[in-house]
Amino acid sequence: MTVPAIRVRAVTKQYGTLNALGGVDLEVGQGEFFGLLGPNGAGKTTLISALAGLVRPDGGSLEIMGHDVVGDYRNARRNLGVVPQELVFDPFFSVRELLRIQSGYFGIRGNDDWIDEILASLDLTHKAGANMRSLSGGMKRRVLVAQALVHRPPVIVLDEPTAGVDVELRQGLWQFVRKLNQAGHTIVLTTHYLEEAESLCGRIAMLKAGRVVALDTTDNLLRRFATHSLRVSVDRVDTAAALGGRAAEDGWVEFAFDGYADVEGLLARLRESGAGLREIQLGAPDLERVFVEVMHRA
Ligand SMILES: Nc1ncnc2c1ncn2[C@@H]1O[C@H](COP(=O)(O)OP(=O)(O)OP(=O)(O)O)[C@@H](O)[C@H]1O
Question: Which residues form the ABC transporter domain (predicted)?
Answer without folding.
Answer: 6-234
